[in-house]
Amino acid sequence: MRKFLLPLAVFAFTVATVVAGPAVAQDESDLSRIGQMNLKELAALVGAVTQSVGRDTLKLQPAAQRSDCAELTRASNSFALGYRLLAEARGSLQGKPAKDIAALQTHIVQSRVITFAARVRAEEWFSRLCASFAMPADKANQPRYAKPVKLQTAEFTQAVIEARQAAEANLTLAVAAGIGKRCPEVISAMQSIQLFVPYLEKLSKDVAKRPEALGPRASRRGLEVARGQLINAGNKLYRELGIGCRAKPPVEAEAPAEGTPAPAQ
């Protein structure tokens, strides 16, 4: 199995290639390098993963339309790798001062929600189109073309919990922007809400098919309430400050369409 023998800063930026290009299986020593990164390197890693998820998401619908099961396999494994990299990045923040990590922590959680949505979409298409697919011999032994592991109920539960956390973080940003009345923060908060609301809607629809994933901490009703709160917060910001800041009017977007890229924060 290939090892990364790169400086940490370089490793952070090469993750974009690892995830967006042919995904490479990583062992525990590769992933443990994330724990040695400083906050700047972690932020670069999270940004690279998020952007890579967006690029691979763009490829999903065309791959499905041409029944390209090899590409759907690669994308599924790429999303799973990105999701785990984000988890490792989040874990590496433990023990660091809260004031130093708050913004990055929010970015990680929101990116995981977006990546989870991509994983679900890829799995839906793979299950629909590729149930009897046999990987060509020239790809069969490559880790990036291994049969994707199915999402587990516990992962849906965790995704709901994290979506609520990300929604609360967005609300906090919106409140702070309203108090501060500074246009860059107002516009940023509105954009973040507009980007994130569709993913709450999609996750709500996904877990509606999996009631076993729901519980006291993972409530579908909670997702719907959070979505409504974010829409109201975005509208309020626009009415009170957005026009003066020349922000775009809020749009109550529906769930991400198939093939819609995950937004990079």
Which range best describes the helical content: under 10%, 10-25%, 25-40%, 40-55%, 55-70% or over 70%? 55-70%
Major sheet, described briefly? none
Mean pLDDT: 83
Number of helices in the DSSP assignment: 8
Beginning-to-end CA distance, first to last residue? 32 Å
Strand content: under 5%
Radius of gyration equals 19 Å
Sum up the overall morphology in one term: globular
> Would you list the SSEs in sequence order as H and E?
HHHHHHHH
What structural class is derived from the secondary structure elements?
mainly alpha
By DSSP, the count of extended strands is 0
Instruction: Point out poorly predicted stretches.
Output: 1-27, 257-265
Tell me what the structure shows:
By secondary structure, the chain is an all-alpha fold. It is 67% helix and 0% strand. It has eight helices and no strands. The chain has helices at 8-20, 28-32, 39-65, 69-91, 98-129, 153-180, 183-208, 220-242. Helix 5 (98-129) packs across helix 6 and helix 6 (153-180) runs parallel beside helix 8 (220-242). It is globular, with a radius of gyration of 19 Å.
